[in-house]
Design goal:
CATH topology of the largest domain: TIM Barrel
Strand order of the largest sheet: 1-2-3-7-8-9-12-13-14
CATH class of the largest domain: Alpha Beta
Distance between the termini: 37 Å
Helix content: 10-25%
Structural class: alpha/beta
Mean pLDDT: 93
Shape: globular
Low-confidence stretches: 1-21
Length: 929
């Protein structure tokens, strides 16, 4: 076999043979933490079937799960173990606590097929990883030929019983030729690195053993043509060694997989998953709930912007999570002071384990405990006590972001010796006390970094507002050593910022301050919804409009208005609950609810006690039954009141098949010009996601509806400040229905809508945005050679490229339709749920036609193999606008009609077009280049 070496350009650029390059990406994962979305990065993922994965669901998402099945051994924990005759157990595998099984009994093949494979086949598995094929050699006496014949009978029985079954053999070299037409590939373990189960340690494979195994694998491949999978074992903390081992395996022409000894973490092979999660440790004793923790309120938004999902852990938990490098990019702790005394030892040991594992660690606010000398030495710092007044002698450029670093008292540290910072250490804040002693309030170090109070955020005296002292984006990137990755982005599609509107139903029964006192709901219909035909979600509060609600005399009129609103094609239906709860989670009293036991927790409805099922499911059934037109149903539950539902409310909503939104309170403006007023994408509770509204409603801009009632026009400031210098949010026109009850508030609404209609935006329904946020949380990404493998649900279609990654290379990429350069970044358009993105700093000549931007969704993308023609389809909600790149000299048609480009565009390489239709199919034909 001729092995062709390729140049390794990136940290996971694997040298591969031509045969290996065409082979599937394979993973072996016997843990339970990885999601199906993460496993779909691989063409084949071998899993432990007892961990509950659904192979049918995985197949629908583009991944094929193979079930682990031990042929030559059985563990006592397996359900079929007790039914294995004692005479078939021929030896004991002590290190793994299992029994080797005799392959010669005539009944064994049928037993294995019936007891082991059939239940898994019934669950939907169609592929199986047959392990321990040579375990009979653990016995003192055995007949080699008879054992091999028994294994062949097992495989033949499986093929007879389960047509279409796919098998991977772990070893079984001697029988591979006899069953080559019944096997997908052959695997072997420990080619370069191995796990010594007896001594419980990782080792390098001796050269003689490696050479023998390489010869065996090459012989099998040459005689059968089957792909070879090589599985090696490396500690999960030694990611660089794992990458090198995978490259060494691939250089031999084999499919690599390198992981921990028990395959409990996602390792790496021909692709390496990108860890998109960051674990954030906080002290729940400091706040009523996670909603109000500084880490969630302030830090999660920058993490989300950088592409990372925040997982939270409360230091008070009995068992703290043990994040691994396979799925976590780093760990952040944010405490305002010391943690509870009974948790300090647990915190100390937890921090030590993160340091030992090489997990990037960023400590904010406080370390949470008085650092023991040994831990301080491990961190490379020493606690220090300042003497007298301090002054800042040096502050890193990332400080002073929104507020100058204050020289107020706080925890201080020093370098452990007079020589100053250790190698690769850099002070973020240096101070001098009255004695001239050098102190530090934060530093970047090889393990990550720390920044203590008051250099993280600063409270503004006399207000509820806060400012960032440090640039959180820069601190997270540098402190956690975050690499440049294509960032999944929910603000944009096909290069344009998203636009939608949603209306909370409060005030549906209000009479507007206009001649004749019409219902505010009818003013909304006539003056807003029928004039500004962009996608909306509109809602009602059942108790306000239903015959048995608070206003029975108005109900006939209000229900008729609701029906007319819900019939509009550009309005999707939402529920704003039954009784408009003000406090969703009674276990988390806060603010007014904590101060007064008499505070109302929902609208006062005689005889009603708040019930989550009635609020969510009941209100939805009411709308679907009495208000929704045929074929149109409620899609969204819009949270009311404090917009802080607990996990139970989120679960009820999810099980009812509803999307959900609201909360987040993004209200940055000229009066509060701080990113601490920009919320995260959402919050997860017990595995259920609450999606936050991108921009808050008019209540904030009108001082809780006390005036000025024209105040909502200031949301235009929020739109501008979440667009520049970073596009942080889409444009969401979000308000309560009572905003149409006053001339001033209605005029403000008109002004906001007119502004939005004049911008180059991309209208979508609120439900489409919600689905993008859900997709963002589960989208998986991996390095694939020097490219990027993307696997999502197909709702999110945009990646934002950091400048260091260059431009998309459309000649090599798959599922990539083009890109758009904006001041906020380079936005890459995906054409499907799966993509392979290659980038380049110098695009090759002859790049094919591509999409530069559009205000509609790409529903079809069919480039020709030679790059000279392209078929695409766009479906939107307003007249189409699009830009095409690399179409000079090409013929552009839409619906069989030739299109003429607009006179000029800012980018000379782009031709822009405008159509009167909201949907069209395009055909592009270009001459040879």
């Amino acid at each position: 076999m001729n092995v062709r070496r390729l140049l390794c350009l990136a940290w996971l650029a694997l040298c591969t043979s031509a045969a290996a390059a065409a082979a599937p990406a394979v993973a072996l994962y016997y843990g339970s933490a990885a999601t199906l979305q993460e496993l779909r990065l691989f063409d084949i993922a071998v899993v432990e079937p007892d961990h509950g994965y659904d192979p049918v669901q995985a197949r629908a998402q583009g991944a094929e799960l193979y079930a682990y099945a031990a042929v030559g051994e059985a563990l006592p924990s397996r359900p079929y173990y007790a039914r294995i005759p004692a005479a078939w157990k021929m030896a004991r595998n002590g290190p793994w606590q299992s029994d080797a099984i005799d392959q010669t009994p005539a009944a064994w093949p049928d037993f294995f097929a019936t007891e082991v494979i059939a239940p898994l086949w019934q669950r939907g598995y169609r592929g199986f990883f047959l392990d321990t094929l040579d375990s009979y050699r653990l016995a003192k006496d055995f007949d080699e030929a008879a054992q091999q014949a028994g294994l062949v009978r097992v495989i033949e029985t499986l093929h007879a019983r389960f047509p279409g079954i796919q098998l991977i053999l772990n070893r079984g070299f001697e029988i591979a030729e006899r069953v080559q037409d019944k096997v997908r590939m052959v695997a072997a373990e420990s080619l370069f690195r191995r796990w010594n189960a007896r001594d419980q340690r990782y080792e390098q494979v001796p050269e003689a053993d490696r050479q023998w195994l390489v010869a065996q694998l090459r012989t099998v491949h040459e005689r059968t043509g089957l792909p070879i999978l090589a599985i090696d074992y490396v500690p999960p903390s030694e990611r660089a060694l794992a990458r090198q081992t995978a490259a060494d395996i691939a250089a031999l022409g084999f499919i690599p997989w390198v992981a921990d000894a028990h395959l409990d973490t996602l390792g790496l092979g021909s692709v390496e998953p990108v860890a998109r999660r960051v674990l954030v440790l906080y002290d729940g004793a400091e706040v009523p709930s996670l909603n109000y923790a500084a880490a969630h309120r302030f830090l999660q938004m920058p993490l989300n912007y950088l592409g990372y999902v925040a997982d939270y852990a409360d230091i008070r938990a009995a068992a703290l999570p043990e994040p691994q490098r396979d799925r976590y990019a780093g760990v952040v702790t944010w405490f305002s002071g010391f943690v509870p005394d009974n948790r300090t030892t647990a915190l100390e040991h937890w921090l030590r384990r993160r340091l030992d594992e090489g997990m990037p660690l960023l400590v904010l606010g406080s370390f949470g405990l008085a650092l023991p000398d040994a831990l301080a030495a491990r961190l490379g710092i020493a606690p220090a006590s300042p003497g007298g007044t301090e002054r800042i002698s040096h502050a890193d450029a990332m400080l002073g972001f929104e507020a100058a670093p204050p020289a107020t008292k706080g925890a201080r540290f020093a370098w452990p010796n007079a020589a100053g910072a250790p190698a690769q250490g850099q002070a973020l804040v240096e101070l001098r006390d009255a004695r001239g002693q050098a102190l530090i309030g934060g530093a970047l170090l090889p393990w990550g970094g720390f920044l203590v109070n008051p250099f993280v955020i600063e409270d503004i005296p006399g207000t509820d507002h806060t400012r960032w002292v440090v640039d959180p984006f820069a601190l997270l990137r540098r402190g956690l050593h975050l690499p440049d990755i294509p960032v999944p982005d929910v603000t944009t599609e096909n290069g344009r910022r998203l636009l939608f509107a949603h209306v909370d139903g409060d005030g549906f029964a209000s009479m507007a301050e206009f001649p004749g006192s019409p219902p505010a709901a009818d003013v909304l219909r006539r003056e807003i919804l029928e004039k500004f035909r962009i996608p909306h979600a509109a809602s009602v509060i059942e108790a306000e409009v239903a015959p048995n609600g608070l206003y029975p005399q108005l109900s006939p009129q209000l229900e008729d208005i609701a029906r007319r609103i819900f019939r509009l094609p550009h309005v999707e239906i939402a529920s704003h609950t039954y009784s408009h709860p003000f406090l969703w989670d009674a276990s988390v009293p806060h603010g007014l609810f904590k101060e007064s036991a008499e505070a109302a927790i929902n609208l006062e409805i005689p005889g009603y006690t708040m019930d989550l099922h009635r609020e969510i499911v009941g209100s939805t059934e009411y709308i679907n039954t009495r208000l929704a037109p045929p074929g149109k149903r409620v899609k969204i539950l819009l949270w009311s009141g404090d917009t802080a539902p607990g996990a139970q409310a989120l679960e009820i909503t999810e099980r009812a098949g509803l999307l959900n939104m609201n909360g987040g309170d993004t209200s940055i403006s000229h009066n509060t010009p701080t990113l601490t007023e920009v919320g995260a994408l959402g919050i997860v509770k017990n595995g259920y996601l609450q999606v936050y509204a991108p921009i808050t409603n008019e209540n904030i801009y009108t001082n809780l509806w006390h005036g000025p009632f024209y105040g909502y026009q200031n949301v235009l400031q929020t739109f501008a400040m979440t667009e520049t210098p970073r596009r942080l949010k889409p444009v969401d026109i979000y308000y309560h229905l009572y905003s149409t009850s006053k001339p001033a508030s209605l005029a403000a609404l008109r002004k906001v809508y007119q502004w939005a209609m004049a911008q180059p935006l991309h209208p979508v329904f609120p439900s489409e945005y919600i689905l993008k946020v859900r997709d963002w949380h589960t989208l998986a990404m991996a390095r694939d050679g020097n490219g990027w493998r993307i696997r999502g649900d197909g709702q999110l279609r945009t990646l934002r490229l950091p400048p260091a990654l260059g431009l998309p290379d459309l000649t090599r990429s798959q599922g990539v339709a083009g890109w758009h350069d904006a001041p906020q970044g380079r936005y890459v358009h995906l054409s499907a749920a799966s993509a392979l993105l290659f980038t380049t700093t110098a695009p090759a000549s002859g790049q094919p036609p591509s999409l530069a931007e559009a205000n509609a969704r790409l529903t079809d993308w069919q480039p020709s193999a030679d790059g000279r023609s392209l078929r695409l389809a766009l479906r939107g909600y307003v007249p189409l606008e699009l830009g095409l790149r690399n179409v000079q000299g090409c013929r552009i048609q839409a619906g069989g009609r030739s299109l003429r480009a607009l006179p000029s565009t800012p980018d000379a390489s782009v031709r822009s077009y405008r159509l009167t239709d909201a949907a069209a199919d395009f055909q592009i034909e270009c001459p040879a280049r």
